[in-house]
Amino acid sequence: MRQFLAALSFVAGCVNAQHIFNLSDASWTVSNGVNATVPGKLPSHAHLDLLAAGVIEDPIYGFNEWNQFWVQRMNWTYTSGPLKGLKSGNGLTTWLVFEGLDTFCEVKLCGQSVGNTKNQFRKYTFDVSDILPTCKGDPVLSLNFGSASKIVLDIAKNEGPDYLNNANGYNGKEFQGRIYMRKQESDFGWDWGPQFGPAGPWRPAYIVQKAKTDPVYITNTAIDIFRQGQMPNLSPDQSKPFVFNASIDYIGTLPKNTQMHLKIVDSRGRTLKETNLGGITQSAGTITGNTIINNKVDLWWPSGYGEQPLYTATVSLVNSAFSKPATVTKRVGFRTIVLNLNAITAADRAKGVAPGASWKFEINGHELYAKGSNFVPPDVFWPRVNQTKIQETFELAVNSHFNMLRIWASGAYLPDWAYDLADEMGLLLWSEFQFSVAYFPSLPDFLEEYEAEAYYNTRRVNHHPSLALWAGGNELEYLIYGWWLNPRNNTILEDYETIFQQHIAKCVYANTHSISYIPSSTYHGYTKLDFNSVTPQTSRYDYMESPDALYHDTDFYNYDGSIAFRYSGYPVGRFADEFGFPSMPSVYSWQEAIPEDEFYFDSAYVRHHNRHLTGNPDFFAASAEGINQFTDSIKLWYPLPELQDPVANFTAWTWTSQVFQADYYQAQIAFYRRGSGLSNRQMGALYWQFNDIWVGPTWSSTEHNLRQKVAYYAAKDIFNPVIVWPFYDEATDVLEVWVVSDLWEKTSGVATFQWVDWKGNALDVDPPVHVRPAHDGSFVVPFEVQPINATRLVTYPALSTFFACKNPTSDALLSITVKAGGYTHSKFFHPQSLRLSSIADPGLVLTKLGIRGKTAQFRITATKGVAAWVWLDYPTTVRGYFDQNGFWLNKGESRTVTFTIWNDWSKGAWLKDVVLRSIYDNVEN
Predict the structure, then answer these.
(1) Distances 54 to 58, 174, 504 between C-alpha atoms, Å
(2) Among 91, 504, 755, 777, whose CB has the most other CB atoms within 10 angstroms?
(3) Which pLDDT score is estimated for 767?
(4) Domain residues for 63?
(5) Cα dist from 400 to 532, 705, 711, 820, whole Å
(6) Top-level EC class, please (predicted)?
(7) Given 362, 392, 453, 475, which residue is catalytic?
(8) What is the pTM of this model?
(9) Residues 910, 875: contact at Cβ < 8 Å?
(10) Structural domain includes residue 749
């Protein structure tokens, strides 16, 4: 036993208790059987083990994605060292338990085949009780992984439809065949990431041994907390008590008279309820029971709307035949969350809401304006994603006024600990099954995999109060009727409904009363909801809509920079779940990915890391054309950097691309938020995308190392609870200024307006009609905003006439500040683009106030004029984030900025390398 402990750790409650051996503690070897054999780890991917052994370089550096293509085309076998300490006989049963195998794998014990896997997203258990006694010597486990990018093409030929649709790869940026695997689809490439197709045991694995008197081994737990009488997709009666339903999956034998005991305690250790569950049923390795919680509970709220109280729930399976109970402990919260897709009511119509149906989230009976973004895999190799990175990612989100992240399909299902972090932080997670923008086969063996995957993951995460929604996948309905495929192609439509409106829907509705389900992220809702039907939702589809009504969410992209700020071109819907524009990562991130002498936009290295391609069949030409979309936009709207030093020029261009992205995101978010007070009653804005999988031009607002782009701070600013925004229509010369609030209470306040030139001098500009100016030309407008609503403050019906030719609009700015509900928000409006504006030297002065503990402070002052897009950048010797950045300053205005330090490798020396710039630096140079 002492020898075994050197190899594997185990937990044993008593002499006869089950032993759980952690296979992460075993020694492992990874080999392709041809030219590479290296030490391995578990969890891991073959790329990571080859990197650790020095066989390959960093896969995301330079051209290594292509140079290391051979890695994913090989088969890789993980072989354990001798597994000492395992026993057999005497009624012992032995199980192999794999939390995740990526993806096509044959499992062998002592050379004997145990089973085959073909789904990255399932937990697999194998009974090896009969194999273990036949092992000669200490057992050896081997995991033989095939090349997914090769296997899927064979599957396509043998099992799938007679074509690979064009959603499965073109222009060399994506591999074909992703629809034929249950593996992270973005592993085959996407328009923001590479195509590594990794293989390996990507999540933990265990050996479980138990005697007859040992309790069963619990493999999964579904806890569902819902209001009595609640059904998915429907708003519950908030006056009803909560129901606590526990359903436990296990391996082993469970006597029929087993009881389920529940104990719930709060964060202080006080017991909320302790009881035996009633209504117990058992079937096929699952036991289920429930109880009503009549006690008063503290409700869980998303960030910005209240606290996040969490309770500890312990469920024990008690039977006298066991030496001790089998127990499972989960942290839970009490809340209701619904995606309301019901028809617009007469009461709503009376308030001016257009007919159709809602598309809004409700938390504990309150309407919620969803603010946030879309989350993509944070690394190309999941085994190196640790809790610190996810915690920092979520921390950035919450500090940016987010209440929601959409966990995009075609990545991977998040681990439980990620939901735990979201539970603590009050971050709602819109979750999706891993199907994205493609036609998926509905053959029986595929359907079996879909169901097993959906059933397991629905049950696994259902207890988390941060879980907001299950969607069948990404852009599936949109694809069917609006993109590549014909909506009236019966085979395609029938397969879509079979998979997402029948099989996946069944898995969700069978396991939860508390979570809503939609078959696709882009969804026009349903005309009928019948939980007794094989197809519970009768989808409306766009061609069944009334032209006078609104039912849908929006998914919108425009890459013509000339119309980026044309509000009339933005979609009008009930909810915006995707919109965006790519930008370059910072020069600091590029330093991690390409050589410094390749710091120019036409570099082959830069083009290689760009996957936003046009339809040009030549990869590098298509990449250059994709990059030109945002360089052309810069040329239209901003002063152009023309610096002699190539690194400085590259730095300025990458930063200006981020300014355009930030400007564009703010305009769209403001437009969508204003919709909360218009007839479309728009109730959410989730921009694309929050994070990065590697270093390259993408839509992200944070980079691969979590360094923040300008768009991150711009989104934080425009997601303030109360904002002011100028909406200017260049075609009609009409300027409207609106205030928007997502507060749950009516709020009142004042807005202060002041026209100035770029040197900060007040301008003589006539105010709107019925507004009395002060002696300095400023004027104040009082206002009132209803809950989650918008109010128009002023209108300039023909803006140019207000200047009366006295001040050219290239040297005019409107400074607006609103104060309401304890919040202050400011915005500068410039009638001309910054490219054509008479930008003056703002005379920025940076004062470094020093470091105190885990924060540093800076004061920035504009001494000579108005400063646009004031930006602080920190060196690579420190990691963290500012509380504000990318802001504007009026002449004489100062702002104190705080930097939160995550890591400091310089012992404070980084402070001297902090860089300050504004858009004027583009002009000056």
Answers:
(1) 9, 27, 43
(2) 504
(3) 79
(4) 19-207
(5) 42, 17, 11, 19
(6) hydrolase
(7) 475
(8) 0.95
(9) yes
(10) yes
